[in-house]
Design a protein that fits this description.
eight-stranded mixed beta sheet; 4 helices; globular; 48% helix
Length: 193
Amino acid sequence: MAQRKSSSKSKGGKKAKKAANKTAKKAAQKTTKKATTKKAAGKPATRAKAAAKKKKSAAGPPPIAKTPPHDATALRRIVVRYVEAYNKRDVPAILALYHPKATMADPIGLPPAVGHAEIAALYQMGFDMDVTIKNDGAVRCAGSSVAFPLIAHSPTSRLEVIDVFDFGSDGRIVQMRAYWGPDNLQGDLAVRQ
């Protein structure tokens, strides 16, 4: 009888272990289910954040800096570097001044070039027409922007322009606007229309 008791105890012990294992499994399943539910609940928010971030990055250039990233002396030096780089046909040096998502409206009123590739193509158009530029007056600095008058020359023409650079908080040009019209052109420069 003693053996039976021990075997019944061992059977009872086995049953108790099985019951404990079942309870533990159920608890683990509930925990896993809760964690999965939390993860699933977090995913839409994460996806929404990623979509918003992607939309923001695709939206265009960064805003013009509220706090000027350059003082007036630095802005004047940037204009000098720009004119030198243009006349050397140094596209990489020019593009280094621009944010990768910058816009360039040259002239104002036409759809702007957007991003480095389109901006480089616009400069190349001027280089192909053998255009050189030189300052034609004082550089004006205000906030995060600089405006400066230029004369653009080709072998057969002259164009009077006012360029405006607006800078982002990283110190690069986020928007370039060139102000000129048909009455500023002398000669037969083939211009964008």
